[in-house]
């Protein structure tokens, strides 16, 4: 009877342990990144989770010139100042 209980305990630990000790890795997807170098020195185990962050998932929609739209007399350099643009962001225009 004791050996049966021991076997059940080992089975439960074997199932629960990978989740308890799992590591979550988040990788930002970008062109030109050496992912082999990123993975070097890391030990991956069953239960670990690898998430590839798609830059378009965090994309921002910008309307160039905001309410002024795309027209003469708008300082687009001033409009862009303070904004950080990333791959995947979408730029659109309002045309009168």
From TrEMBL:
<feature type="signal peptide">
    <location>
        <begin position="1"/>
        <end position="22"/>
    </location>
</feature>
<dbReference type="InterPro" id="IPR008972">
    <property type="entry name" value="Cupredoxin"/>
</dbReference>
<dbReference type="InterPro" id="IPR003245">
    <property type="entry name" value="Phytocyanin_dom"/>
</dbReference>
<keyword id="KW-0732">Signal</keyword>
<protein>
    <recommendedName>
        <fullName>Phytocyanin domain-containing protein</fullName>
    </recommendedName>
</protein>
<feature type="domain" description="Phytocyanin">
    <location>
        <begin position="60"/>
        <end position="96"/>
    </location>
</feature>
């Amino acid at each position: 009877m004791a050996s049966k209980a021991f076997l059940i305990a080992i089975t439960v630990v074997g199932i629960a342990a990978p989740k308890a000790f799992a590591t979550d890795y988040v990788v930002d997807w970008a062109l030109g990144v050496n992912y082999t170098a990123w993975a070097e020195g890391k030990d991956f185990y069953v239960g670990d989770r690898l998430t590839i962050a798609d830059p378009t998932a965090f994309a921002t929609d910008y309307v160039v010139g905001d309410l002024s739209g795309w027209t003469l007399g708008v300082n687009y350099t001033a409009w862009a100042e303070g904004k950080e643009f990333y791959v995947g962001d979408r730029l659109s225009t309002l045309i009168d």
